[in-house]
Amino acid sequence: xxxxxxxxxxxxxxxxxxxxxxxxxxxxxxxxxxxxxxxxxxxxxxxxxxxxxxxxxxxxxxxxxxxxxxxxxxxxxxxxxxxxxxxxxxxxxxxxxxxxxxxxxxxxxxxxxxxxxxxxxxxxxxxxxxxxxxxxxxxxxxxxxxxxxxxxxxxxxxxxxxxxxxxxxxxxxxxxxxxxxxxxxxxxxxxxxxxxxxxxxxxxxxxxxxxxxxxxxxxxxxxxxxxxxxxxxxxxxxxxxxxxxxxxxxxxxxxxxxxxxxxxxxxxxxxxxxxxxxxxxxxxxxxxxxxxxxx
Amino acid sequence: xxxxxxxxxxxxxxxxxxxxxxxxxxxxxxxxxxxxxxxxxxxxxxxxxxxxxxxxxxxxxxxxxxxxxxxxxxxxxxxxxxxxxxxxxxxxxxxxxxxxxxxxxxxxxxxxxxxxxxxxxxxxxxxxxxxxxxxxxxxxxxxxxxxxxxxxxxxxxxxxxxxxxxxxxxxxxxxxxxxxxxxxxxxxxxxxxxxxxxxxxxxxxxxxxxxxxxxxxxxxxxxxxxxxxxxxxxxxxxxxxxxxxxxxxxxxxxxxxxxxxxxxxxxxxxxxxxxxxxxxxxxxxxxxxxxxxxxxxxxxxxxxxxxxxxxxxxxxxxxxxxxxxxxxxxxxxxxxxxxxxxxxxxxxxxxxxxxxxxxxxxxxxxxxxxxxxxxxxxxxxxxxxxxxxxxxxxxxxxxxxxxxxxxxxxxxxxxxxxxxxxxxxxxxxxxxxxxxxxxxxxxxxxxxxxxxxxxxxxxxxxxxxxxxxxxxxxxxxxxxxxxxxxxxxxxxxxxxxxxxxxxxxxxxxxxxxxxxxxxxxxxxxxxxxxxxxxxxxx
Lengths: 295, 538
Known about the structure:
- The complex is a heterodimer.
- Chain A has helices at 50-65, 78-88, 101-107, 110-121, 137-150, 165-174, 192-199, 209-215, 241-249, 257-264, 268-281; strands spanning 2-4, 25-29, 39-43, 69-72, 93-97, 123-127, 153-156, 179-181, 204-205, 284-286, 292-294.
- Chain A is an alpha/beta fold.
- Chain A folds into 2 domains: 2-215, Rossmann fold (3-Layer(aba) Sandwich); 241-294, Arc Repressor Mutant, subunit A.
- The longest helix of chain A has 16 residues, at 50-65.
- The two termini of chain A are 35 Å apart.
- The chains are: A alpha/beta, B alpha/beta.
- Chains A and B meet through α4, α10 and α11 of A and α6, α13, β18, α18 and α20 of B.
């Protein structure tokens, strides 16, 4: 673990936009990760919906593959999905913690613990708090300002009316960082915050990973390996065939196999074969309760 | 005038020693009948440890000496108490309990004898040894005696009678309630109300006829039929696969979507019991004291649904003497665990042994009993603590970590053994109202399941496996041949590495069952596809 002072080489200059830049900024992991540019903050609610999960993964994966650094808060929910997608795309990711790094290590459990380990290996964990300081409510708000400052652009994927992610949005606006929000279904609790940002004009509506990549001045890379390319290019004609229909039907959220088969008007054997093929190609996944979701 | 005890006999006092009562020399003993007194009487009985049986010879010796009544041959407390019961029963049946040195041995003496089933045999042996019973009862004698001499039924009559038959003993003397069990196995079952009746029958003064074999009875009526359930095609399909192949099945869905109803429809599509499964399952119910006197042989595969507050003892068995638990009562049938996440993890862990071995061994203070426990496991759970995840009409309020913790309760070795995991969604009202005529009935599905099982039986003959769920990795390689298209899909599955090697082997077993249900020789692509889709990872 190292402590970066504002004068040190490697201390991100953009942090100086804050009224009180972190001094020092504690870091564990790869120092070079912070130098990767452009940096995109992808944040949102802890209680994500399957829609939010998919969008977070698509955006983070897409922009990471294109060369950006994904920054987030390592909270459960949207943050964790963004980190994971970036790592899976083979890119580093940086997590800004709302407590001291040692305190975080002592308290974290389960999948986030595993994720934190992977971030240290391929990215970094940073904190403006001394390592032993445990989390207190107000610390997360300050952390959100740091996230906004570290980023070249901020994306709110899904946020309820009172989500902490809206603080990150407010800070982004204050620091004049480009702010984007993902539109969600009208009336959905977890999209009330994001939809409001868009309606008020505070954030621009983001329509896909491709749009984000372009906005960052990057070029979309070729998809490699077994993962299907999630970049949605709005100008291309819509994909034909069952695979395309499948992506379409699952855009709003997962569906059970029966519902999907009914909408595709397929008999059970053909439906099963089509879904299984899509599953193996990585276009869809099975959710924890047996429904089919878009990857 | 009481005589003094002859020299050389033990002076040990007994609780029933009557002061000064004589012990007449054997040769001058007054007799109740003309039959000679045998020096040692022998009556056949049968011991039971769990389902394990062994023929026991109850020997009785009546000798000179101070009045004493001892039972040897490692009797447990219940058998020791038989002394009091037998003594009172003999007296109250109009016979005389010999005021001499009575010794009863339960041979072979090496193994502990348990339970009250030896009462009748002990009483008859004593009567024979004291000249009050004219001839040997040439039958297995099984029953508990009441103090007034009435004969009471015992648990586990069926396996004991089977043991007798295997040893060439074709006749049994039992209480009325145990007679159907014995008759059902083909034994000459004589039902008696009490000790007097047995003696009268043996001596020939009042012979009775054996009990008739119980009538087959009407075919079972199942409370839930598949046609009662609207929609839910995939869950029903999973149920059919579980019924045919014996695969474990987990239903996941919001509350009120019909998971319990679906599980309770399973008995209506299970195939009929094999003859040896029938005997084993009926014997287990007999040992548990749950045999239906009208119908001792089970009519249908058992379906057990313990509540999630069930203890370890209730689930796997135990107690002294060790009694079968729910897993054994479900042998040959299905065990349904509703609200799986509410079961204590400690209790769920005890399922490992039966799921792995197909049997449970219960050890208690020196005795051990092994009960078979091969069943199809069906379970139902909510997707998250609030239950709403995946419900299109409601929003889930749970934090992801809370969901992870909830799902972790149903994880590890137990989940590993559940081949089928299916989402049970909320069915739209319109579909609920749709005509029931279009839905398949359980009878139709049951026929398909029966045929599939038959195909399995033919293919697996000689391997000792009954259903595809039991296949080992090597057997999967041999028996689950894929057709060309399925082979391609299988290749992709392996290459994609979304499935572990073990997971893939489980998928193949399910695919084999799907193919069997369709009557296909080799596993087809749609069979493999369906199996792949039924493996949601919670």
